[in-house]
Amino acid sequence: MAPMMLVLLAAVAGVAVAADVPCRPMQELYPSGKELCERMWDGAFVYETDLSRAYTMWFFERDNPNDKVSHKLGKTPPNKCYLQYLHKTVPGPEPDNFTECHPWKNRACCRQQTVSSPEKIIQNYGPEWRWDRCGTLSAACERFFVQEACFYECDPNAGLYRMYSDKDFDASNPRHNKWQIEGMPIRADYCDSWWAACRNDLFCALEQGNHYVCAAEYEKADGQGYFYTLVKSIVSWFTQ
Ligand SMILES: *[C@@H]1O[C@H](CO)[C@@H](O)[C@H](O)[C@H]1NC(C)=O
Fold it and tell me: Pfam families annotated for this entry (predicted)?
């Protein structure tokens, strides 16, 4: 290949290299479970040490303990699904094969088709939101991402923390949405366990591990497309 051509290809590939998003072990991004819960999810969740006033992303009881938490916080567990992403409009039972998000089987805002397995869940939000963009997570760590997704999609109480409530929602404002939550108190011990399980796993390092900032950057990088990836691999083949 002519040297001039190689220089040109390297310049083009430089764009794609710049778009590469850095990865770091989660214990370097988040000093503790507090930063993991709060920063990773861009303020959707708040680390709460008073466990009687904090929601859990998973449970083993027959009745959802988050309903009691809502009462304790002076709210009513909703009989509607206020969040709208893949959610139903009202909570209800799911079929017998509803196993992945089983705690919510009797009363869920999610549908079996959308949460049938981790492989299904990880595809739900587009490639930029995948939790394995820095490589496959350990099983111990991935479990927490699955639980968070079940909690977000299935628990009616999450709808109490919608960023733009029905009252405030303005469909003509492009910043408004029906999927985002804000300031939902999560049990500190749950966040600490998540951190303990994930501390050695790699995650996107932008803004010290802000999943939302990372997703926006991955979307841009992915948009540069197949051509740049191809050029980059040709250049690396010639320059190795
Ligand atoms: C689960 O059960 C429902 C209803 O019985 C069915 O429609 C669905 O195909 C089953 N399988 C999965 C993987 O959702």
Answer: Folate_rec
